[in-house]
Amino acid sequence: MMKTNLTAIVATACLLFAGAPMTAAQEYIAPEVVVSKDKIRSGGKVYYSHVVQEKQTLFSISKAYGVSLQEIFDANKSLNLETEGLKKNQILLIPVKEGSEEEVVTSSEPAERLSMVVQTPQRDAYFFHRVRWYEDLNFIARKYEVSPESIMNINGLATPKVKTRQMLKIPRHPEMWENLEKPVSETEEETPVEIQDTTEKSALDLPDLFDNIFQREGKHDVQVSLLLPINARAKVNDLAIDLYSGALLAARDLGNEGTNLDLSVFDVGDGTIPVTRERFSRSDFVIGPVSNADLIRAVNICQGTSWIVSPLDPKTEALADTIPNLIQAPTPTNTQILNAVRWIGSDLKRGDKVILITQKGVNTTDYAEAVSREMSASGIDFVTASYSILEGRNSMQSISNLMTTSGTNRIITASDSEAFLIEVVRNLYLLAHNSYDIVLYSTSRIRTFDTIDIEQLHSVNLHVSVSYFIDYNAPAVQKFIMDYRALFNAEPNQFAFQGYDLMKGLTVLRSRYGRNWDRAFNRMKVQGLQSDLEFVKTDRGGYVNKAVRRIVYARDYSINLVK
User: Fold this and answer.
1) 111, burial (CB in 10 Å: exposed 0-12, middle 13-18, buried 19+)
2) Who's near 477: CB < 8 A, 6+ residues apart?
């Protein structure tokens, strides 16, 4: 299976697109194709990441990059370019060829002072690389498969020391720049330009008192890594790509807000973690891997040098309880159960009846045990109705005997069995039509079963405690959808929303509070587009998200976010 290493460095304007080219009144002017500055590495090959602009053609793009049409077709097989053609804002992979033009660098080049005249490099004899915070000369040389000596000579460096944001020339023909006499002085380096924060209001509206407690001092640069199974089982993992796309859009928005963010992406699709302990230590936090097994591998390599965020699996709560540097982003099922029980308690009125429905004749699951435990510990007065799935509608009479006609019957089920929940909802639906006022409380588990009639969920006034819910009427959600469509020519799904929420929420915290950011976890709640972040420290180590959204299936067939 081909191993893919994908690395993306996201700057402030990495995803911005320009307007359509101007045209004369009676004359057609071919649209300009600007060679992209963004590169990715996949399958051992380096590609430009080109965003298609209005009126650009495959022919004009191929000419600008100096590649053939067939090479573009081969690099983008999943896009079916031969039959479907180009679309505006589509992202193309363009092979980087030796001798192709690199990006145009607008900043001034550093002046060079050499003790002797060696060679005057022509513009097409080299390309530029801006030094990242984690790179040294040897790292850069290995990246471009040239010798450190050739980089030093073409740049007039007396020592191998380089600085963050320094602009280096990388020779296309390194052999021409080896075995030369060393210069007597080091190249003058350009002054790093810090991105100024011009945002009037941050993405998080936190109290000034809290800022003072943790000594906020402006914004901090943030280094983030993504570990995703992008090329799992020799094919692209759509889930990982969606999560990655959402994170990229968040990175763009953060850049527009003045946050200086470096994002590196590593493919873990083959079950290995291509990151060393040292590389982990250079990241402020790492989103991923996704699976429990890969998370354990990453934790063992990281050895506490960075924060690792579990992005999707709610079952990693046990890991967060034992590993101090692990953050579980999805709200655990047990937290949703506790929230549902507390919701019953807050809604309870005089004359109401609370009924716990359990499944008879089956082994007790962790879910059923958790519901029964939380109900018993809640102090709520309730009765229990227990029956097997084989009893079906014959159990309706026994349930109705426990109900009240003078108040609301508040029901919660201690089962996550799809077949049993279908029977419970159907029975409650029929009882609701017999003039019983019924409210069913549950967790997000019930929403995963497509076999349950949605009309029945509205009839029983379903109240659900969930970790994810998207309010499509919210302006921020609508903006995200429009931006996502424009950039990726696709509809965002829940994984894209999750990538956006995690990248933006965690980066804003890290940017605002620097090294003290974890001390802020217990004192704040970050509201996202799809989910919220409210971390609580476990007894023995890491952090677990306890944020829950409450939604109601109203009898008028609307679904409303109430908290």
Assistant:
1) exposed
2) 470, 471, 529
Q: In which element (H, E) is residue 440 found? A: strand 437-443
How far apart (Å, rounded) are the C-alpha atoms in residues 49 and 231?
Answer: 17
Residue 45 in 3-state DSSP?
Answer: strand
Could you give the CA distance from residue 42 to residue 5 in angstroms, rounded to a whole number?
5
* C-alpha radius of gyration, the chain, whole number: 29
The CA distances from residue 144 to 41, 126, 128, 169, 408, in Å, are 11, 12, 11, 11, 70
CA gap 350, 365 in Å, rounded: 33
The DSSP bridge partners found for residue 526 are: 533
**Closest C-alpha to 560, from 500, 437, 481, 471:** 471
Closest by alpha carbon to 323, among 540, 71, 97, 42?
540
**DSSP category for residue 5:** -
Name the CATH topology of 334-466: Rossmann fold (3.40.50)
Contact yes or no for 285/535 (Cβ under 8 A): no
pLDDT digits (tens, 9 = 90+) for 108-128: 333 333 233 334 444 457 777
Q: For 449, how many CA atoms within 13 A lie in the half-sphere containing its CB?
A: 20
* Span 269-292, pLDDT tens digits: 888 899 999 999 999 999 999 988
The model scores a pTM over 0.70:
no
Judge residue 233's burial from the number of C-beta atoms within 10 Å of its C-beta, 0-12 exposed, 13-18 middle, 19 or more buried. exposed
Cα–Cα–Cα angle for 269, 314, 527, nearest 5°? 105
Contact 251, 274 (CB under 8 A): no
- Pick from 319, 283, 315, 320: which is nearest to 302 by CA? 283
Round to whole Å and give the CA distance between 324 and 541. Answer: 4
Q: Which helix (H) or strand (E) holds 397?
A: helix 396-400
State the maximum Cα–Cα separation within the chain, in Å, rounded to a whole number: 100
Burial code (b: 16+ CB inside 10 Å, e: under 16) for 359-398 equals beeeeeeebbebbbebbeeeebebeebebebeeeeebbee
Q: pLDDT tens-digit profile of 39-68? A: 776 666 788 878 788 778 887 888 888 888
Residue with tokens 């071919």: 30
Q: Which residues pair with 266 in a beta bridge?
A: 227
Please, what is the angle between helix 494-513 and helix 238-256, to 10°?
Answer: 40
Strand pairing partners for 552?
A: 463, 560
Task: Give the count of beta carbons closer than 10 Å to the beta carbon of residue 304.
Answer: 14
* Residue extent(s) of CATH 3.40.50.2300 domains in the chain: 208-331+474-547, 334-466
Q: List Cα–Cα distances, 524 to 38, 503, 554, in angstroms.
A: 35, 17, 30
Give CATH for domain 208-331+474-547: 3.40.50.2300
Q: Is 384 in a helix, a strand, or coil?
A: strand
